[in-house]
Write a structure and sequence with these properties.
Pectate Lyase C-like; 10-stranded mixed β-sheet; 284 residues; 20% helix; 15 strands; Transcription Regulator spoIIAA; alpha/beta; 5-stranded mixed β-sheet; 5 helices
Length: 284
Amino acid sequence: MDPSNAALAEADTVLEEIIGPPALLRGTARGLEMFVNARASTDAIIDALDTRLAEAPGFFRNNDVRITVEDGPLPAGCLARLDELSQRFTLRIIEVTAARPAAIPEPAELAAGSAPTTLEDDDPIAVDDVIAELDAAESPESPESFDEPTQIVAMPVMPEPAPVMPTIEGARLFIGPVRSGVILDHLGHIIIFGDVNPGAEVRATGNIIVLGRLRGTAHAAIGADSGFIIALRQEAQQLRICKKVARPDANTPSTEAEIAYVTGDQIVVERYTNRLPGNTSASI
């Protein structure tokens, strides 16, 4: 082996030990998924997936695949390489999303020498038991003990606050079509490359852009004051923006791209002229 190639291979092995495997291919409840470690190099990601797919190319052929990106954005040019790899093995990329970070529980405060106590979620905190353990942990012969007893005030157990929905920056790219019965949700903007079929629903806290025919239901700007929905063909069963609802006239579909937005107390649908009307630019 060329010494330079051997050095590169050794460097890749060390890097994999530090950051984990560059990519994994798994079958999940949602179907076939590629888990990509964005901290790895593009070549390492492609090589890992190529090796796995080559083991059983007939098994994976003609499958839909979702790409989940972990630890940051993809390296430059990686998405194009992933698309080439998928085409070579006759796979269809239907979704590219970022992995949601796992919630990290806050560590409980423990007295020196004590062991953590496991409590069920619904069990009340036994304050008296904790105080008894603290008293037993202190020895009378200890030079750090006090002659006078220490007063311990038990703080009331406060209910846990309701979970706060995370804010996801950027837009979610979805390679369609969005089939009937599918509900597509995202905290942010959604851009769909393909059609939204009747019976499908797209919901976003940001704006929705459909580079195809919008024939299902779309709800944009959930919980916001302004937003818009753009589609190359507006044939939606129902449009919802903020708290407003509209049912476009399906009998006279337009042959041009249209934008739907809220003005006053109603949703207006008009031809998109390469600019955002009114104050809708504030929603980006």
